[in-house]
Amino acid sequence: MLVWFLPLFLLFLMLGLPVFFGLLASPGLLIWWDALANDNPRFMRDITLLYRNVYNGMDSTPLMAIPFFMLAGEMMNRGGITHRLVEFSQALMGHFRGGLSHVNVLSSMLFAGMSGSAVADTSALGSMLIPAMEKQGYSRKFAAAITAASSVIGPIIPPSGIMIIYAYVMEVSVADLFAAGLVPGIMVGLGLMLVTKIMADKYDFPAASERATWKEKGQASLKAFFPLLTPVIILGGILGGIATPTEASAIAAFYALIVSLFVLRSMSWSDIPDVLKRAALASAVVLLLVGAAMAFKTVVSLSRAPESMADFVLSLSSNPLILLFLINILLFIVGMFLDAGPAIIILGPILGPIFVEMGVDPIHFAIIMSVNLTVGLATPPMGLVLFVASSVSGERVETISKAILPFLAVEVAVIFLITYVPAISLTLPRLLGYAG
Amino acid sequence: MGALMALLRGLMAVNSVLLRVGRTIAWVAIGIMVLIILYQVVMRYAFNAAPNWTEEFARFLMLWMTGLIAPSAYRWGGFVSIDMAVRTLPRIPAAILSLLLLMLAMTVLIVGAMIGWSEVTGFSGSFTTGSLYTFVFPSLSEGVTFGWDKMPRSHMMASLLVGMWLLVLVNTELVLKSLIALFDPDRKLPQDTAMIAAGAE
Amino acid sequence: QEYTLRATANSNENDEDYDGLVVFKNFVESASNGAIEVELFIGTQLCSNGAECLQGVADGSIDIYISTSGGAAGIFPYVQVLDLPYLMQNDRVAEAVMQGDFVRTMRDMALEDSGDAIRLMTIGNTGGWRNFANTERRIAAPEDMEGLKIRTVVADLPQELVRALGASPTPIPWPELFTSFQTGVVEGSKNGITDIMGMKFPDAGLQYLTLDGHAYMGALWFMNNEVFLSMPEELRRVVVDGFYALQQATFASPKRKSIEAYEAFVAGGGDLYVPTPEEKAAFAAAAEPVYTWFEENVDRGPEVLAALREAVAEAEAEINAGLEADLN
Ligand code: NA
Ligand code: NA
């Protein structure tokens, strides 16, 4: 009976029930139904277990990095740091054909070094760049599409909220995951720039500005210097033995505060409550979702679905290369319907061990799964980033969904590249001491 | 309909106050979390004396932050959902579907709030935290014992319970709005003026 | 079947907890002639730490759970008596104690403090003994610990011990420990050898291991009391015998597993140091304040410590009497 948890959950989701309630209602109803059918007087204990794991799922030290990185991102935004990153990107790439699209991608890559969230990227950069692109003659749907497509780099280049969740559920090191995400994130960025270049040549996109002089480049770099130091502080802090990843996230938030208050003077003391409030609001939603997904996962375990799913996967093929291909397709489909965090919490413990057993490196698999589901943030119908891009640009989700297809194609290509060339993910962590 | 509107206005006024208090505590909590973790790094790295209470206290604050501000996010539409079905259906079926979904959410919340209460007041809540202390008030029935004592987990677990109850209040507000919209689609519904953009992922 | 028991352990299938559970399941299912079915949930599928899992045992959503002493300390603080250093000399003494009345004393205390909800079934072993290991230097005397940042869990007793020896206790989450050794956030830990090798800590620089055996890694097996008592007596007997078989399995399993682990540690260039009896006495003397701390600060501490000391004395007397006969 309990195995119906997934279809029922998807039904609720498609009807429009918020994910949080769906994650609790579907297993809850099934436990109750199961108890009625089998005359099981102990069922209330299982519902209590469900509730309890919502709480237990949130009560975790590694998860504290989520509010801290959210906060760092909010500070960056409020403190005009986003603006400086865009100017810096423009000085470097504005003179190319399709200048602002390249600037959009590059800014996302830089923003990714300080923020762990694709949604924050879309709303911060989108509200600035989509109007600017429209003014230069890009169609609004194209501007929204490139913004959404490039924002998924946010949680691939460290720091990353999704990788924090993965590390938490699968008990791997956040530091290793962060190091492993850097090169794949840059590859997604380069891939998007390549598509942009092809389209720019074909449709004759405008350049954004004259080529910047060295002096202008220097000035823009100087203005972006302190913000660009953030990723160095985060990774340096972790790898230099000063801080754990959770602590590094708090340091990043504090650093962003100091830079915006005293160095750039782009934020005042009176802005602080609002910034804290926004970060708290955004992270509370994520944390509740994590808790609900952890509870959902418990019922999945009780139903013994993980074992039967593992058997099923292994019955398809014994060749890990073929299985990885199939899993990527599965994850891509899951990503269309489910948010990356819940998807990782529910599927990670089922899929991870199968592949680790077959000899796939745990960090490599973590990157495959995280990148794939992150790209899912920009796929319809349940693409969070598409919703945000739609509300920022005023363009309909359906229209953006069509315009984003060429970018998604290149992102899928990168996913397969990452899947079949483990060195892309593993070289950097190994250089930094990962022993796997 | 007039009675429903009056009920809605009253409830919204109460919710607005409660949620504002919740948001205020939440932003203070996240701020203190940052400071505490910074203190932890400094003490360990510079003074070689890692405090043992910092992490748990920061977690305590994070849980309360979540319980107190998540209901505001729900009120402002920050809980992610696919609204395709509701948007494609004709008005009446769409309104009925929304109402049914809200009732389902209400069931989840009320069951949650009930279990939460027994968790906090029952055996589960009597476990102690690892490193936190709380002030114990004198109790005449059990002899005059007061002073600092290990904090029970119930103090942390109450965060989700409070969150559940606030969500029940918000959900009731949404049910009322949806009822009014079903029977009187042209009536203008009151809005919460404090709304700030609730982004999430 | 008439009874389905949900058993959970937070470790993995390479752990001695799992070995014990497999023995238990096999014994109970066959000895009860199928009347009892045991379902195993290994890892954190149902709950992920002592507090969470024992809450489940109390309300019956989990029937059987193995907790470390640190994990149960939030509700039964006196179980930390097992973490008190240098009370039991070796496996032989510890195993005699864990099979004697001491466990029954602790069972009564736990039943009292949980309102008859949680029953301590037996105490086995999980991972042998805790030893000090570090990335910096060989530790032969308490003075060598001076200033080292030693990772502990967030519990009072292990922190008091590390402090008493002159080092700084530092709480670090388990999954971050490898990186923390590597980067120097912490310099040492107190773990059993199988955990050290399982996590590949030597690769992160943890190369100095002193076999001081400062704590017996007791595995406390708890069961929902109501479910246990609801069974007819002959099935209760099957369950109790099953826990005996489980206990024996967990006594044996770490001994077998640690041989390979120690060999791998030394083969990887690790420095394995066995302190002399004099050096061990110096460690015990330095750790003295921890006993006082335990008696003064832990609920029912004096009671449980006295029970353990008595049990140890009895076990030692019995073993010595046996030795007397065996050696001559
Ligand atoms: Na990022
Ligand atoms: Na972008």
UniProtKB/TrEMBL annotation, chain A:
Function: Part of the tripartite ATP-independent periplasmic (TRAP) transport system.
UniProt-recorded name of the protein: TRAP transporter large permease protein
Protein family: Belongs to the TRAP transporter large permease family.
Membrane topology classification: Multi-pass membrane protein
Lineage: Bacteria, Pseudomonadati, Pseudomonadota, Alphaproteobacteria, Rhodobacterales
Single GO cellular component term: plasma membrane
Keywords, comma-separated and alphabetical: Cell inner membrane, Cell membrane, Membrane, Transmembrane, Transmembrane helix, Transport
GO terms, molecular function: transmembrane transporter activity
Species: Pontivivens ytuae
Subcellular location: Cell inner membrane
Record note on quaternary structure: The complex comprises the extracytoplasmic solute receptor protein and the two transmembrane proteins.
Ranges in a coiled coil: none
InterPro entries: DctM (IPR010656), TRAP_DctM (IPR004681)
From TrEMBL, chain B:
GO terms for MF: transmembrane transporter activity
Limits of the Tripartite ATP-independent periplasmic transporters DctQ component domain: 33-172
Annotated membrane topology: Multi-pass membrane protein
Domain of life: Bacteria
GO terms, biological process: C4-dicarboxylate transport
Annotated keywords: Cell inner membrane, Cell membrane, Membrane, Transmembrane, Transmembrane helix, Transport
Subcellular locations according to the entry: Cell inner membrane
One cellular-component annotation, GO: plasma membrane
Transmembrane segments: 21-41, 61-82, 94-118, 130-148, 160-183
Stated role: Part of the tripartite ATP-independent periplasmic (TRAP) transport system.
Self-association and partners: The complex comprises the extracytoplasmic solute receptor protein and the two transmembrane proteins.
Family: Belongs to the TRAP transporter small permease family.
Name this protein carries in UniProt: TRAP transporter small permease protein
